[in-house]
């Protein structure tokens, strides 16, 4: 019974995450399920804020791995990025990934990163560094990056030092390194 209760609870959490419904709705959903048929849900005791956060983080990691795997199976992907400040005035880089899979265009959340954790300012170099770190961490190929969308801020679109220009240069470096390695092996 314990396993069944956990499976039902995790299914509720997964539904909330996958449908992009506010995580504040998970407890009302569990209460609803308890009242209308899943009586064993009353035995789900991991309802503290910390427990809910851990469950959502675990489920989020699984969903992200599915998204990244689907994106990696395609030939190209694009990124949609924006720099935002949260209520604690922390500079965050929010990134979505867009790719084609099974004949459909998919746009999914990819990451949110603290730009000032390892950088002194939220400039183009910091953003490029964070984007390339995320691409590498997710085992995506920088050479498969086909597009970058932003809000049009000069940090992204600057013709000399914008994120787009810097990413293109990094991409060209990766392409040269890759072709040099192929030539040396021949």
Structural write-up:
- This protein has 186 residues and is of the alpha+beta class.
- The protein folds into two domains: 2-47, no CATH class; 74-185, Nucleotidyltransferase, domain 5 (2-Layer Sandwich).
- It contains six helices and four strands.
- A four-stranded mixed sheet has the order 3-2-1-4.
- α1 (2-18) packs across α3.
- The termini are far apart.
Write the layout of secondary structure elements.
Elements: H1 2-18, H2 26-35, H3 49-73, E1 77-85, E2 91-101, E3 104-114, H4 124-137, E4 145-149, H5 154-157, H6 163-185
Parallel strand pairs: 1-4
Antiparallel strand pairs: 1-2, 2-3
Helix pairs in contact: 1-3
Task: Spell out the key features of this protein.
four-stranded mixed sheet, 186 residues, disordered C terminus, Nucleotidyltransferase, domain 5, elongated, alpha+beta, 4 strands
Instruction: Profile the largest sheet.
Output: 4 strands, mixed
Number of E strands: 4
Which CATH class of the largest domain?
A: Alpha Beta
Distance between the termini: 60 Å
What is the overall pLDDT average? 89
Oligomer: single chain
- SSE topology string: HHHEEEHEHH
**Unreliable stretches:** 181-186
Hey, roughly how much beta strand do the residues contain?
Answer: 15-25%
